[in-house]
Design brief:
heterodimer, A: 241 residues, mainly alpha, 10 helices, elongated, B: 248 residues, alpha+beta, Alpha-Beta Plaits, 2 domains, two-stranded antiparallel sheet, 9 strands, 33% helix
């Protein structure tokens, strides 16, 4: 069998575009968000970053507006894709990627720990169960990103619209909610960023075939056989290999 | 040289007429129950057993390192080069993270604008070359305002000619743009600043979320750089052993 024929089409152009749309939005939203938080007590980025961005945008009001508009575009894009392709793409993806029960989380956690340990030559002989399309580590990251994204979107909407819609002076609860939303927004973003470091490393260094499949939509059958034997079996049953 | 605006309050000249408060409320149209400045009455007993009343005209002290500016997430609280601490209403969400941070309780949520209000030394008036409304109207001449960097200004002259103190403590030691002349009497406890406080959410953000995020993101980047370096070393070692076996 020729090498070309061993490549399997696993991802359509729409899904690939959504991934890169999401990645671009994340890059811009994180950069601008870190530029919005200004006070020394509350900011995470070094002081030069908010100063630089706010100077470039002609003040923080424009930066906040740009961040919020881009956030709305991000939410709209993801929601539109999810609604339009719920049956064909979104629901199957969520079914496969979400680790929701404690037993699954523990199994996935063990897989992630062993995978990370092996990067440093540790736990070489630890037995790992065969994985499906998404490995335990990918499922944990996927779950983290999906859950955090929902919190980020909701808290972001509240942060932008609440001061315009509610009187914090009349009902202090709205102001308290605003402060909790700020905390939640930052915490959820930072959690995802911690996970994204691993995601980017594996895509760029360890499993370049995955990155390739996120560009062309095709993946090498041998790679699937080696990394995701359960998925390979499934593809075989479907006659796609 | 930049201007450095300061306010002087000679409490020995204050007669508690509160014209300053009325002028401020008129100037800024503050809602009922709120004011950007005040006169605090402090009753005590003197060393010879006589009752005494001290009057402290107060307002935002325009701290050099203003904790309200540090606590503000959006940059709405900011300090001009001339020392005046301002609030950018367009940016202020009214989240009140800055309110407990002020050791002088000088910031409050305005129920009309839904943004934070505070004394700005009447910045629009100052920019037009006028004195703040409270200074303009002070009957006893207790309040003086001007540029401390101008040696010929009245405030510079007064700074040289009298003894002045600032409202600070060991816990709130920072310098401010506001001075008081008490006629040599010690400052009563009632007018001293309380320690800088934070809302629970601000404390969690600064004390937990940000440090954990810094360590987490930094640690992950460091760990994966190390993993990448190990991978390169392992590959080179493999290539080396491959060459050796080829020579054999």
């Amino acid at each position: 069998m020729s090498k070309q024929s061993r490549r399997i089409h696993v991802r359509d152009a729409g899904t690939i575009r959504l991934h890169w749309f999401n990645a671009l939005c994340w890059g811009l939203l994180v950069a601008s968000g870190l530029g919005i938080l200004s006070g020394d007590f509350v900011r995470l980025a070094p002081a030069f970053w908010p100063e630089l961005l706010q100077h470039l945008f002609g003040g923080n009001a424009a930066l906040v507006l740009g961040h919020a508009m881009l956030g709305l575009v991000w939410m709209g894009g993801i929601m539109l894709f999810t609604l339009l392709r719920w049956r064909s793409t979104a629901a199957p993806f969520l079914r496969e990627v979400l680790s929701l029960t404690p037993r699954v989380v523990l199994t996935d956690l063990r897989f992630m720990v062993v995978t990370l340990a092996r990067l440093f030559g540790l736990m070489k002989h630890a037995a790992l169960p065969p994985q499906g399309r998404y490995s335990g580590a990918q499922r944990l990251l996927g779950t983290l990103i999906v859950v955090c994204s929902v919190f980020i979107a909701l808290s972001g909407l509240y942060l932008f619209f609440a001061p315009k819609l509610f009187s914090f002076a009349a009902a202090p609860l709205y102001g308290a909610l605003f402060r909790w939303a700020l905390l939640l927004h930052a915490a959820a973003v930072f959690l995802v960023l911690i996970g994204l470091v691993a995601h980017i490393y594996f895509a760029v260094v360890e499993e370049r075939e995955s990155l390739e499949s996120m560009k062309s939509g095709y993946i090498d059958a041998e790679f699937v056989h080696h990394h995701s034997p359960l998925w390979y079996e499934q593809l075989k049953r479907e006659g796609r290999v | 040289m930049d201007k450095r605006y300061i306010m002087l309050a000679d409490i020995t000249r204050c007669i508690n007429c509160k014209a300053c408060v009325v002028a401020c409320r008129a100037e800024w149209d503050t809602p009922l129950g709120h004011s950007r400045d005040w006169v605090r009455e402090v009753e005590s007993v003197s060393a010879d057993g006589l009752p005494q009343l001290q009057l402290f005209p107060g307002r935002c002290q325009h701290c050099d390192d203003a904790p309200c500016v540090e606590s503000c997430p959006s940059g709405a609280a900011w300090k001009r080069a001339d020392g005046i601490v301002l609030v950018d209403d367009a940016l202020c969400s009214g989240c009140e993270l800055c309110v407990p941070a002020c050791p002088y309780d000088a910031r409050w949520l305005n129920p009309v604008t839904n943004t934070i209000s505070k004394c700005t030394f009447c910045q629009p008036r100052v920019d037009q070359g006028l004195a703040p409304a409270c200074v303009q109207t002070c009957v006893g001449g207790a309040l003086q305002f001007g540029d401390a960097n101008d040696p010929a200004s009245k405030v510079s002259e007064l700074l040289r000619s009298k003894e002045w103190v600032q409202l600070n403590t060991a816990e709130v030691p920072g310098a401010t743009s506001h001075y008081y002349h008490t006629g040599g009497k010690p400052l009563p406890q009632a007018v001293l600043p309380h320690p800088v406080q934070q809302h629970l959410q601000g404390t969690l953000l600064a004390g937990v979320i940000n440090p954990v995020a810094g360590i987490g993101i930094g640690g992950m980047v460091g760990a994966f750089i190390a993993a990448g370096v190990k991978k390169i070393i392992d590959r080179r070692a493999q290539r080396g052993s491959g060459k050796e076996s080829h020579h054999e």
